[in-house]
Design a protein that fits this description.
This protein is an alpha/beta fold. The chain has one domain: Rossmann fold (3-Layer(aba) Sandwich). It is built from eight helices and ten strands. Helix 7 links the parallel strand 9 and strand 10.
Length: 260
């Protein structure tokens, strides 16, 4: 696990986008694992800019989204299908047939989840997975106590998650209480993982995920077991890290780091 502390949100977003661009440049048919929510918006904005201004090509890539609310049609403005289309897909050249977002309206959730796992495998697995982190330390919709070997499944959302997401809906009772989500085990099979976090509201979760014990109570802590995970965080999100000076020292002394 590598912890990369940036001055602010724009800088961490640009750095994460650069890592994704490097994956695409060395493997044009890469499989990208995508996340929703406010945190990755800066990454998508930068990737769109790179597509328009630097000819970053998505024409051969395949995408899989982490999750989707149950019960929201794809046209609902809070569905993750809609989010991804408005904020990313309509601005780049990912072929429509290569886009995969879980279905929140399927009539057979177990069969769909099995198919989603199978489809990821058929495409060769995920090359780089983008993640956010919940205020309680969850990744995707893998709430506290989720199995660290879990697979794509139907999941009941925790009250704190519903409360956190209520700001996106007209009223709290409109937030769905179920979602389809990739499991922790599914996420850990990605070749590379990028986790994004900014703001003091994520400081406790980041500290527990990076420096706490590996525990199903903080599902992001499972990333400690992954061989190539990078946390891109800002100063506020880093504020509770005990080893913060060490992480900054590592970044300064890495081969190729700019001289002070």
């Amino acid at each position: 696990m590598e912890v990369i502390i940036k001055p602010g949100y724009d800088q961490l977003s640009a750095a994460a986008a650069q890592q994704i661009a490097e994956v695409l440049n060395r493997k044009p048919n890469a499989v990208l694992g995508l996340a929703t929510g406010s945190t990755p918006l800066g990454v998508y904005k930068e990737l769109v800019r790179m597509h328009r201004e630097e000819s970053l090509d998505f024409s051969r890539c395949t995408t899989f989204n982490l999750d989707e609310y149950v019960g929201l049609p794809v046209t609902h403005d809070q569905s993750y299908h809609y989010f991804m289309h408005e904020n990313f897909f309509k601005h780049v050249n990912v072929p429509e047939q290569n886009i995969h977002v879980p279905s929140g309206t399927t009539s057979n959730f177990p069969a769909f989840c099995d198919w989603y796992e199978q489809r990821i495998e058929e495409c060769g697995g995920i090359d780089v997975q983008i993640l956010g982190i919940g205020s309680d330390g969850h990744i995707a919709f893998n709430e506290p106590t989720s199995s660290l070997s879990s697979r794509t499944r139907l999941k009941t959302l925790a009250k704190v998650t519903i409360d956190d997401n209520a700001r996106f809906f007209d009223k709290a009772e409109d937030v769905p209480i179920y979602a389809i989500t990739m499991g922790v085990g599914t996420i850990l099979e990605a070749d590379e993982i990028i986790l994004l976090a900014n703001g003091k509201g994520k400081a406790d979760a980041i500290a527990q995920a990076v420096e706490g014990p590996v525990s199903s109570m903080i599902t992001a802590s499972a990333l400690q077991m992954h061989p190539y995970t990078k946390f891109y965080i800002d100063q506020d999100a880093a504020s509770n890290l005990k080893m913060r000076e060490y992480y900054e020292w590592i970044q300064m002394k890495k081969p190729g780091a700019p001289e002070a």
